[in-house]
Write a structure and sequence with these properties.
about 75% helix; 25 helices; mainly alpha
Amino acid sequence: MNNYKNNSICFFFFFFLFMYMMMNFFMMIYFIMNDLVYFLEWEIITLNSSSLVMSILLDWMSLLFMMFVCLISSMVIYYSKSYMQSELNLNRFIILVLLFVFSMILLIISPNMISILLGWDGLGLISYCLVIYYQNLKSYNAGMLTALTNRIGDVFILMVISWMLNYGSWNYIFYLDYMKNDKIMQIVSVMIILAAMTKSAQIPFSSWLPAAMAAPTPVSALVHSSTLVTAGVYLLIRFNILLMNMFFMKILLLLSVLTMFMAGVSANYEFDLKKIIALSTLSQLGLMMSILSMGFPDLAFFHLLTHAMFKAMLFMCAGVIIHMMNDVQDIRWMGGISFYTPMTSLCLNISNLALCGIPFLAGFYSKDLILEMMSITSVNLLMFFLYYISMGLTVFYTIRLILYIMVMDFNLITVYNLYDEDYIMLKSMMVLLLMSVISGSFLSWMIFSYPYMIYLSFNMKMMVIYVIMIGGILGFMISNMNIFFINKFLMVYKMSSFLCLMWFMPNLSTYGLIYYFLNLGQKLTKNIDFGWSEFYSGQGIVNILKNYSIFYNIFQMNNLKIYLFSFILWIFFMLMILLSI
């Protein structure tokens, strides 16, 4: 009975979100065709000339993003119906996911800093609840790291709210054009950039993103595609007019490109399936942030949407594989699953190839455009090489993942659990499979009202294809050889701990921040509380008084002659003083 009730609740919310997505789709078409922007204000309450107003901004961008969020979340809820079927508290899980989606929708449609804070903080709080969903020590640690890192961004948003009191309204959209050269607005924009860096996990706030893998896989599919991590990118797209020609954007460009490179390198050393996909998300976020900081917000939004589709499907495939493998996530135990699970393998391959940027899949349209725009922009040689190397590393770890999961020999103890008949999971993956194939071309026709004409030499134009091919060949070579032998051969074995541990960022974010303070506290407790303060106050005074009282007690009780003699000495001493006067 309980299982039937859970299934009906899942289906109801799936249907509701799917219908809402269809409504957003038709509204978005109408808004694009007529070039409309609706700014709605709902006066909730007025008391003594003080009014509480809820503002909503509807344009093609917010409607399109809401459509993608609702599509992915409806598929995730339908997928959870099967993935979480043994969960006793499925209702609680579904409600948490819905609150997560509604927080993101509130963030998307808000032109007001207060309602942005509500959505922003809602995402942070509910992500903590979802990361600690499987209640164990690792989940608690990951949840605390996620929550505290996101709190830094919340603090910056709160500071923006206090700075914007100078303008008389928190509707930032009124001030973007007219106040962009104002000093206070520049302070606001720096704080917005820092808040977006925490939410979108750029260096030095990157360590929480792989840690958040402790959440259930459907949540990971939602978080890493269209909700939590994209909130920072979306906020910067909205504030983009303010951020043009700022020096801080050059710093953001450097940090985001380094994030992209660091995540690509770390993914090649990783063996945890979900963590590899999480690091690929981190790499793609670096790509979005970097092209945004160069002044192309429309391209960042384009890649954000195409990436959402294949990344959600990638996590869904990973969830199916982990279920089949008896909850084993180490790719060294997998291999040869394409013989047993052809449909899941098909979805995994398509999403991986879209991630690589293989021509005419969703990822190709956005990645190719981004790299060509970067090639004709005046960036320095370091950025240019890091961009293309990071693109090659994406293909590198993707080919490595495919080889370990599908091509190499099966390494688990038994193949008894391998099945490909969970039609609920397959149906939700098939919808995203279709979108992963067609969404790139569909969005490139839909978003850009003007065609990008990019003139490059033949070799520069083919650079994306060259990088994909070189990355694929290297991934194939390295995965078929002993990685430790290659490390020793290249004399970088000692570097591998630095490279595979995300440049020690998780350690710096946890032990690095708290170890010295806790150590100092221990020393202060030992030396001050239990040391000098104990010696001079409290126990020390008691000991001194006790010793003196024991001494006087012995002095007075045991020898009457000494007592009398001391009395005579005292009288003699007093007489001497009197005679001297």
